[in-house]
Batch of 2 targets.
Target 1
Amino acid sequence: MHRVLSDVSFELARGEKIAVLGRNGAGKSTLVRLLGGVELPTSGTIERTMSLSWPVGLGGAVLPQLTGNDNIRFVARIYGKPIREIRDFVEDFAQLGHFLSEPVKTYSSGMTARLNFALSLAVDFDCYLIDEILAVGDQRFQRRSHEELFEKRSDRSMILISHISEILRDYCSRALVLYRGRGKVFDNIDLALEIYNSF
Amino acid sequence: MFRSFLKQINLQRRVIGALMIREIYNRFGREGLGFAWLIVEPLMFAIPVLLVWSFIRAKYEHGLLMISLAVTGYLPVLLFRHVCGTMIMFIRSNATVMYHRQVTLFDIFLARALLEIFANIMALISTITFFLILGDMRLPANLPMFYLGYFFTIWWSVSMALLVGALTERSKIVEKIWPVYSYTYMIFSGFFFLADWLPPKIRNVALYQPSLQAYEMIRAGMFGNAIKTYGDPAYTSFVLAILTILGLWAMREARKYVIIE
C-alpha cells in the first residue's frame, strides 16, 4: 500500500484563512478529497465544527448529466434553501445565460467552474475549500469572485489552494506546506512560500 | 433531542427526494416520456414475455392458472435483478454527489432502491390489471399473505443489493460473476415452481433460499388454499436480518477503499 499523506495536522479557527502549498503529487488532491468528505482517512480524524463547503474547483460537486438549472434545484433542495434565491444568485454571478438549460457535461471547464463557484457562494458556508478556482474566468469574473469571497465574506474561514502567491500572501496568515505526503504548518506565510519555492 | 431527530429525518427526506429526482433525470433525461419511463420500462420487460407465454403455454399448469403463476414469478425476478443490477459499482459512479456532506452513501442507495421498488410495484399492479381484463388471471385469494411475500421479496432484493454494491467495488470477479448469477437465478429462485412440486430431499435444501421462501408466501397469497406452501416468515426474517447486517457492514468497508477521481 502506498501512503499518500501522513502526519498532517492542523486546526482552523473561525474567520481564519490558511493556504495549502504543495507541488504536483504532494498530496493536495487527496487532502481536498479527505476534507471534502468523499474519501475517508485510513487513520486519524477530521473534525468539522463549521459548515465546510465542497471543494470549489474545476470539477467539484456539480453533476455533469444534469442541466445547470437542475443542479441549482438539486443544491437548493439538499441544503434546504429557496430555489429562487439560489437561482437568482447563480444567474447573476456565473453569467451562463441560456447554457443553464443545457447539461453541464456540454460546458467548458471554465463554465463548469463558474457554476460550481456560484453554487457554493449561494449556499453560504462558514468555511470555503477553494481549490484553484481563483484563476478561472475573465477579468470581470475574477473581480466579482474576489469581491464575493474576500470582501463580502471576509469573516469566513478559508482553506485556499492556489498557485497565485500574491493572493495567498494577501489573505492567509498561515500555510500548510505539503512535501512528499508530509505536512507542516507555518505561522508565517512568507516563510512558507519561500520554502515551497525552494522545493 | 426529539426536535433534532425530527430535523434529521426531515433533512434525510429532502436529500433522498432530491437524489431520486436526479436519478430520474440521469436515466431518462428530461424530454419525451421522462418520469413515465420509470413505470413503462419494467412493463416493457414484463408484458411481452408474459403475453407470448399466454399464447404458447397451456392455460393451466399443475391445475393452476399459468399466467397467475408466471406473473407472481416474473415480477419478483425483475425486482431482484433491477435493484441489484443498479447497485453495481454505484459508489464510484456517485462520487461527486458525496461532496455534499449531508448526502450519505446510504441515501444514494436508498434513493436508487426506492425508485426501482416503486417502478416494480407499479409494473406489478399494471400487469395484474392487464391480465385481469384479459381474463387470464384472478386477484390474489389472500391479499395480506401476498403483501407479506412481496415484502420479503423486496427485503431480499435490497439486502442482496447492499452486498452487490459493496462487493463489485472491491472485486472484479464479483462483477463478472454477477450477470451469470442473475441469469441462473431465474431457474432456482422459485420463479417457475412451487416447493411442493420438488422431491422432499431437494425441497428441504431449496427452502434455505430466502427467494423461494418469499415466492412460497406470494403463491400462498395468490392461490390460497388451492396449493400447499412452505413459507416460513420467522426463518426468512432471521436470514434476511443477518444478510442486511452483512450488507451494511460490507458497504461501510467498501466506502473506505473506493478511489474517487
Target 2
Amino acid sequence: MARHWRAGAAGLTVLGLALTGCVGAKVGDTAAGAKNADGSCGTFNLAVNPWVGYQADAAVVAYVAQHDLGCKVTKKNLKEEIAWQGFGTGEVDAVLENWGHDDLKKKYITDQKTAVSAGQTGNKGVIGWWVPPWLAKAHPDITDWRNLNKYAANFRTSESGGKGQLLDGDPSYVTNDAALVTNLKLNYKVVYAGSETALIQAYRNAEKNKQWLIGYFYEPQWFMTEVPLVKVDLPAYTPGCDADAAKIACDYPVYGLDKIVSARFARSGSPAYQLVKNFHWTNEDQNLVAKYIAVNKMSDEAAAKKWVDANRDKVEAWLK
Amino acid sequence: MTTAQTEVPHWRRTSQNPEDRTPVISVRRLWKVFGPKAEQVPQSEELCGLSRRELMDRTGCTAAVRDVDFEVSPGEVFVVMGLSGSGKSTLVRCLTRLIEPTSGEVVFEGEDIRGADARRLRELRRRKFSMVFQHFGLLPHRKVVENVAFGLEIRGMGRGERMRRAREVVELVGLAGYENSYPDQLSGGMQQRVGLARALAGDPEVLFFDEPFSALDPLIRRDMQNEVIRLHHEVGKTMVFITHDLSEALKLGDRILIMRDGKMVQCGTGDELVGAPADDYVRDFVQDVPRGDVLTLRWIMRPAQDDDALDGPELGPDVVVREATRAVLAAEKPAKVVENGKLLGIVGDEEILAVVAGQQGGA
Amino acid sequence: MAAVADTSGPVATWRQKVTRPMAVGAILVAWLVLFAVLRGRQTLTLAAADLTSLHRWLNDVNDTVGAGRDSNPLFLYFFNEIRLAIDHLVTFVQSLISQPTAGRPVPQIGWLGVVGIAGYLSWAVGNWRVALLAVAGFTFFGLQGLWQESMDTLALTLSAVLVALLIGIPLGVWAGLSDRCNKIMTPFLDFMQTMPTFVYLAPLTLVFLIGGASAVITTVIYAAPPAIRITAHAIRSVPATTVEAADSLGTTRRQQLLKVLLPLSQRTVVMGVNQTIMAALAMVTIAALIDAPGLGKTVVQALQSLDVGTAFNAGLAIVVMAIVLDRVTTAAAGRADTARRTGGALVRWRRPLLAAGGIGTAFLVYVSHTYVYAAEFPGDGTAGTHIASWADTATTWLQDHLSGLTNAARDVITYGLLNPFQTLLTDSPWWLVGLTLVALGAVLGGRRAAVTAAVCVGLLVGTGLWSDGMTTLASTAVATVLVMLLGAVFGVWMGRSALVDRLVRPTLDAAQVMPPFVYLVPFLALFGATRFTAIVAAVVYAAPVAIKIIADGVRNVPESTVEATTSVGCTTWQIITKVQLPVARGALTLATNQGLIYVLSMVVVGGLVGAGALGYDVVAGFSQGQLYGKGLAAGLAIVLLGVMFDRITQAAARRTRA
C-alpha cells in the first residue's frame, strides 16, 4: 500500500510541476487594458436600449469615449422606461437615441428635472406603414393609402377576422394605427405582433415567400439593409393634425432623434458629456454600423472600430 | 408434587399482593372527549349518561375515554385491553399527556401530573416514563445505538456516557452486534427491540407499551412477549401494556382492564376475567380462551365433603389447572387445595375434566 | 335564463340523478343557446390604448412611490439596506468567478479552479458520475466561448438560490409546523409564482436600482415559493409516530425541530433546493431585461438581430447548466441514503479521499488564480461558432421545408378550434361566461370551487380587461388541450416502456429549461406572428411537465392490476384505455392542473409573438409608462385565471379520488 502512495504522490508532484512551473505567463504580467485609466473622465454609464440602431450608436460612442477620452464605459442594457428611470437614481448618464417619448420628457425633464436634452443625433426617425419590396413592385399603386381597401382581402390572415391585417409590432412605441384605420375608413384590423423580432421575421418571410404583408415599421433600422421595405403614403402630416389622438387621420411626423442625459451628468463637466452632446451622424452611418453588427455578426467593439477608422474626420468633430 | 407450585412464573408472584404497597399510578375519573366544547361533557350529568353515538349526534363530540378509574402498583404489569376504537390508545397517551385529558386526575407518585407545567412534564418524560410504540417511531437517519441513546442525549448526557449506557441496553435487549446498523436494515421485530431499548435506556420508573407487537408476525410476536417477560423479570419495572389481543393480555398481565367504547368494563386478574366475567361482553371475549391455562384450582375446587378421602396430593390454590391436570389425574384420590396449611377445598378428576373437556369443546 | 338557473342552482339535488359529464354537457348546451341569442352584447371590450380609472390609479401609485424614493424612510432604511446586502453578495461571488476585480484583469478563480471545484463538490455531495458530468458540462461552457457569461449566470443563480433558501427554508419550516401560517402563506405563494415577472420588473428597478440586487430579487420572488412549499411539505410528511416518540422522551420544541423534523425532512428539502435552482435558471433571460449580466443577455441581444444561432448557443449553455445542477442535487438527495449502506472499504477510504480531493482542488484554484492559461479559458470558442452555424442551418432548413405543413396545421387549429371558441368567449355577455364558469366550478369542484370562481370572475371584471382575459383564456384552453393530448400519448408510451422513458426524458428536460426566447424566432418563421405561435410556444414549455406526470402515473399503476387484466385477455389498447389511464386519473388531473399553470406562465411570452390580449397588455405596460397600470391589471388578470383554474382542478381531483 505504501508503494502505491509513493507512486501516487510522485505522479501528483509531476502533474503539479507541469501545471505550475513549465507553462506560461502569470496573471498580471501583461497588464492588458490598463492603458486608458488616466482618470480624467471617470465612469460613463451609457444606457443601451434594445434595438440594433441604438446598439450601433452606443458602440461608436463607447469606443470613442474609451479610446480617445480614457473613460471607463459601463453599458447597461435597458428598456427605455427603465433607462429614463435611471436618470433619477443616478445609474444612467445618457440615452443616445430617443424617439419622441413626450410623456417621459414631461415626467423626467419638466417635472422631476433629473434629465436634460443634449441635442439631435442627426438621425431622422421615419415611422409609418411599410410593405415588402416585391409587393410594391408587383402592385405599385399599393403605396397610396387610398388603394389599400382594394387590396384588403389579400391581407387577410387567421388573426384578422375577415378584414385585412395591419401588423403592429413593438409595444414600446405609441401607435395611432387603430385610430388611423377607423378614421381613414380602412377595412383593416390592427394585429399586435408584440415585438420587433416578430415584425422583422414577418417581413422577412413575406419577402422570401412573396406573401402579402403591411405593417408598422420605422427607420433607421438595420433590417432595411437586408430587405428595403417600401413606405405607404398616408395623408401628409401637418403640425397639429395629431393633436387629438382619437381623431388622427394623418401620417406620423418625422422624428428628429435626440439624446437625453441626466442633469447630474450635464453638470459634471465630464468630457464624455461633451462627446454625447457633439455626437451627430446620418441614417446611412448608423445603418452601416448596425449592418456590421446584425448582418456581419461583428462584435460592437469591432464594428465601431471599423467605422471610426474609416470616418476619423467625423469623430474629430465630436471631440472638439 | 409440591413442585407444581414453583412452575408458576416467578415474576408473576412478585406482585401477588398489590394492596400492601402504595400505587405508582392512580387514575381517577379520567375523561378524554374530542370535539367542540369537549370540557362540558364530563361536567354534565345528562351528557355523561349518553351512549357514544348519542353524544356524537347531540354535541358533535367523541368521548374516547369515559370516567376511567384504576391503580397500578409498583412492579406490576397492568394490561389495558380492548378492540380498536375502545379508547385504549388514547387512555395510555393521557397518562403521559401526549394527549391532554379533558378531566380527572392522573396521580404519579403522589403528584397529579395534570398540574405539571411544560418543564415539569418534560422532566417526568425524560426521567420517569418512557413509551414503546406500535410503529416503533425510530429515527431512520440514526444508527441503532444512537436511537437508543436519543433520550439520554436530549436530557443532556455527555456523548461517551450515553453511548456506553446505550450499548449496555442494546445488549440487554439482545441486539448486540447490530449497534451500527440503521433501523431500516433491521426486521420489524428487531426494530421493536430498538424501541424497547430506547425506552429502557433512560431507566424510567414506568414503561408504557402501546400495542407494541401488533405489527409483527405471530412467531416474532411470541418471542417479543417472552422478551418482555424476561426483561420484567430482570429489571422489575412497572409496566402499562396496551393490547387488543386477549391471549397476550393473559400471558403478560398481572391485572387486566377491559375497555369498551371508552368505558371500563372489568378490571381484574386473568383468572377473575375468565372465571367471573362481569357481563356478556367479557364472557363473549373470554369464551375461546383455553380455560385450563388460565383458571387456577381456586376457581374449580369444591368444598370437601365428609366422604372425600383426604389423603390425596396437596396443591396450592393458585396453581393453574393445566399444570395440576396430570398430578390430579394420576392420583387415585382427589387433590387437596391447601393454603398456609389450611384446607380450602378439593379437586377431583371430574372438576379437572370439566375444564379440560369444556376447553376442547370451545376450541 | 331558466336553463342557467337550472344548471347553476340546485346542484346538490341534481347530482343524484345526473352524472357529472351530463351536467357539464347541459351547462355547455345552455351556454351555446344563450350565446346565439345574446351574441355581442355586454362584452366589455376595451381598445388597446384605452385605460380604465383603475389603470390610471395604478399609474399614479407607481409614480408616487417612485417620487418618494429619496425621502421615504422605508426606502432609506429598509430597501436600501437590503439592496446593499444583496449587492455585496452578488459582487463578491462575481469577483470570485466571473468579473475582474481588485486590479486583476481576470476574476480571482479561473476556469480550471471553477471546473475543479464543480467536480469536487459534485463528487462530495453526490457521486463520481455526476462529478464527471459537472466537469464535462463546465468545460463545455468554455468550449462554447461563453465562459464568462456562464459564470455570471452561475454567480447570479447561486446568489439568488442562497437568498431564496435563507428566506424559504425557515418560512417553509414555519408553514410546516403551523396550519394557520400555511393557510395565510399559500395565496401569497400562488401570487408570486403566477404574477408575470414583467409586471414587477420596472418597479423593482425603481426600488432596488439597476444591477445585481434587482436581478437577484426578481429571481428570488419566483424561485423562493418552491423552496417554501417543499420544505413545508417535508416537515408535514415526517411520520406522526416518530414525532410522538420523541415527544414521549421529553424533547423540547427546539430539540424536536433540530434532531427529528429537520433531519427526517432533509431528503425532501434537497429536492426543494433542486426546484429552486431550476426556477432561478428560468429567470435568466427575464433578468437580462434589467441588465443582469450573463447568458440571458447574450440570448436577448442575439434576438434583436434575429440571430438564432447565437441565441441557441447561449440557450444550450443554460440547458447544460440546468442539467448539471439538477443531476448533482438529485444525486445529493439520494446520497444520504445510499452512502451509509455501502459500508466497507469505500467508507473507510472516503475521508482520506475527500481530503486528498480537497487539496487537489485547492491546488487547482491556486493555479487558476496565478497563471493565465488556467485563468482564461483557452481558445476562441470555436465549438460555439459551430453550434451557432449548425443551429442556423437547421432552422433555415426547417423554415424552408416545413412552412407549408406548419401553415396548414396553424390554419386547421385556428379556424377549426381557436376562432370559434374565442368568439364564444369574447362575444358572449360577460355575465353569461361568468355564470358558466361558476356552474362548471360547482359541478366539477363543489361549492368552494364555485365560490372561488365567482370571486375570480368578479375581480376579473374589475380589472377592466374582461375581453382580453377571454381572448387569453381561449388560447390557454386550446394550448392546454394540446398539452394534454401530447401528455397522454407520450406519457403512456413512456410509462409503459422504460427505454422510451430514458430516451425521451432528456429532451423534455431541455425543452423545459431552454429559454423560450430562443425558439420564438424559428416559430415565428414557421407560423407567423399569430396566436397559434404563442400556443405552440406554450405547448413546448408545458407539455414536458404533463408528460412526466402522466408517465409517472402510468408507471405507478400496480403491476398486479395490469397482470390481472392481461390474464383476462385484454388487448394493449384495452389495457391502456380501460386500466392504466383510469387508474392513473389522479395523475391526469394533476397534469391538467400543472399544464394549465405552465401554459398561463407563457401568456406574456405569447404576447411577444402575436397572441395579443393579456400578454400584450403586460408587455406594453412594461414598455410604456402610460400603460403601466393596465399592464399591472393584466398581470392580476392572469393570476386570477390561474387561481381560478388551480382551485377548480384541485377540487375536482379531490372529488375523483374520493
